[in-house]
Specification:
This protein has one domain. It is 69% helix and 0% strand. The chain is elongated.
Length: 64
């Protein structure tokens, strides 16, 4: 399972944020491919990972 990101993303370095985004993307992709047959646990994980990935993308977008 992928580690949960801290609430304050500014505590992470830009390199760590990019790495976290890549790790989340790697885990999200197979879950999306199996979308119709996901268990409740996998669906919850997908939602969590997707929300964290969006949070990282928004944070990086604001920094630019």
């Amino acid at each position: 399972m992928v580690e949960k990101l801290p609430e304050n993303l500014s505590t992470l370095s830009p390199e760590s944020l990019r790495h976290a985004a890549n790790v989340h993307d790697e885990r999200i992709s197979p879950l999306f491919r199996r979308w119709p047959s996901l268990s409740r646990l996998e669906t919850a994980e997908l939602k969590r990972l997707y929300n964290e990935r969006l949070r990282v993308a928004k944070y990086l977008g604001k920094r630019r």
